[in-house]
Design a protein that fits this description.
heterodimer; B: 12 helices; 0% strand
């Protein structure tokens, strides 16, 4: 029961954080899908199924937070590169501000407990 | 990308499952299929030809496509189906139980209902054992209804037992019963009613006394069938209830027949 609760909680947390992490990973750089997935997978506990990232990328593109471009790669398949749009950068600033606010509030709560 | 035949088949199969999982959502399945294809190509770029094991390692990291979309984003019907297919056992069993109960109730008029109700009962019992009665929470509404229905029916069957044919025989042979108990009421309707009431009481009394013996002998299997109701049962106590009721009702019946 405790495990089930923890799993549900961590899944919910990851869901929210993945979008923020993707936007941050693309801040100031262009990455292709596989590269982005590998970069996010390095963050322990963030990506359980790598495939989860692609539907999120698709939605972020539909929301016009991201734009894509296809480019030939040296000796490999053509790659779809993702980058932030102006709208995406604005959204990322808002999300980062919100995240910092939450983080600070949570840290204050934890300090009070000590 | 150069894949072996079996690896190519596996990839096609995976992409087909993925398209099916994303159907009905806001995500374009074809676009994701192209992304996944590119992902696999990038991951296996240095292996030529890539075999089934190489591909499986990549697909395992990608994870099962049904887990890529949050349940809240799926249409209601698919959400329920997902819970049934992939949800934790602690939710899947209660939902299955509830579905079988509804089918059981709907199909009761055409006779198939009993089969579904029994299936619901078994699923409900499995759910109670898997989750534990104290952890059921709101799921108790999904789980306890078929248990209550089936156990009520079973209890009624046990209480009634083989008495109705006995009563029917008694009603047919009222004259014989009257003579057997030395009565000569002729066709006085009050007398007939009294004899028939006495027959009913005596038949139930006899059956319940016999039932108490059956309960005492088959206590363990009965206790198992009646879980979770039977958690606090004791053999003597549970057998005493029909015994005492049987003696009381039987004596009343005999008094009515002989007085």
């Amino acid at each position: 029961m405790a495990d089930e609760f923890h799993n549900n909680w961590s899944t919910q947390l990851r869901k929210g954080l993945l979008e923020l992490s993707i936007l941050n990973a693309l801040c100031g750089k262009r990455l292709y899908g596989y590269e982005l997935v590998k970069r996010l997978s390095e963050i322990e506990g963030l990506v359980i199924s790598e495939g989860t990232i692609y539907p999120i990328l698709s939605r972020l593109r539909a929301e016009e937070y991201l734009k894509t471009s296809i480019e030939e790669s040296p000796g490999g398949p053509p790659r779809k590169y993702y980058e932030l749009t102006d709208r995406g950068r604005t959204q990322l600033r808002r999300m980062n501000a919100h995240w910092t606010q939450l983080q600070d509030a949570l840290e204050r709560l934890r300090k009070e407990r000590r | 990308m150069n894949l072996t035949c079996e690896a190519q088949l596996r990839l096609n199969n995976y992409l087909a499952k993925m398209r099916s999982s994303l159907r009905g959502t806001s995500v374009d399945g074809e676009e994701i299929a192209r992304d996944i294809h590119e992902h696999v190509e990038s991951a296996l770029a240095d292996i030529n030809p890539a075999g089934l094991d190489d591909l499986n390692a990549v697909l395992e990291k990608l994870g099962p496509p049904h887990a890529w979309i949050a349940s809240e984003e799926l249409p209601l019907v698919r959400r329920i189906v997902r819970y049934l297919q992939h949800g934790p056992e602690s939710w899947r069993l209660p939902y299955l139980t509830f579905g079988a109960t509804i089918l059981g109730l709907l199909l009761m008029p055409i006779g198939l209902g009993l089969i579904f109700m029994l299936a619901a009962f078994i699923l409900a019992r499995a759910a109670v054992e898997e989750i534990g009665p104290e952890n059921l929470g709101p799921r108790r509404w999904l789980v306890y209804s078929p248990i209550a229905i089936v156990l009520t029916l079973l209890s009624l069957l046990m209480v009634i037992g083989p008495v109705p044919p006995l009563i029917a025989w008694g009603f047919e042979e009222t004259d014989f019963i009257m003579k057997s108990f030395g009565r000569s009421g002729g066709h006085d309707s009050m007398e007939w009613i009294r004899v028939q009431a006495g027959t009913v009481a005596a038949a139930f009394g006899a059956w319940w006394i016999l039932l108490s013996a059956i309960i005492a002998l088959a206590y363990r299997p009965l206790r198992f069938v009646y879980i979770p109701v039977s958690m606090r049962w004791r053999r003597t106590r549970i057998a005493l209830v029909p015994l005492l009721s049987g003696i009381a009702v039987g004596v009343i019946g005999l008094i009515v027949l002989t007085s």
